[in-house]
Write the structure tokens for this entry.
Amino acid sequence: MIGHAGRGSNMLALAQNIKSDPNMTLATVIAPNMSAPGVIAALDLGYPVQHVPYEPKETYTSRLLEALNEVEWVCLAGFMKLVPIAVIQRFRGRIMNIHPALLPKFGGKGMYGIHVHEAVIQAQEKESGCTVHHVSEIYDEGEVILKATCPVLPEDTPETLAAKVLKLEHLSYFRALQKVIDGE
Ligand code: GRF
């Protein structure tokens, strides 16, 4: 399952890799919002998409669990909400997320989207990158599966850095999924 809310570039990159791997099946893309660009692209490509809106809140967890019934591995990609505890518990060790920085730095509250790259540049870091990690009850704090790095150059802006990191993300998420499946 690939949880996804917006642009969906990681979801689409991952889905494409999964589809071309004879040993894997893309079980479902969970879509909170059917008009998100990534979801529209996934539908165009014929990927299995399930609409699981956040509302009504009271039934969100049970509807999400139901949608994940046939799923073995869960990859969050741009999922903007906290994952319900019951979902984390059901998939412990089999649910992962990607973050656009080198955790544990630049993670946690407020660290999403362009804010992450602004903070990295502000802190004059020499390198950045992405982290794929297991999802635990504490935001951005699950065990790291894989990190990939790129240099932060003096001329980098938050936007150029975001573009570099996004390229790395597209290469890293599938590798991380394979690593976890292979038990490495
Ligand atoms: C990515 O930067 C990812 O690291 C973070 O959310 C962003 C989603 O981008 N979790 P996209 O929708 O996959 O293009």
Q: What stands out?
A: Residues 158-181 form the longest helix (24 residues). Residues 48 and 109 are 32 Å apart (CA to CA). The radius of gyration is 16 Å.
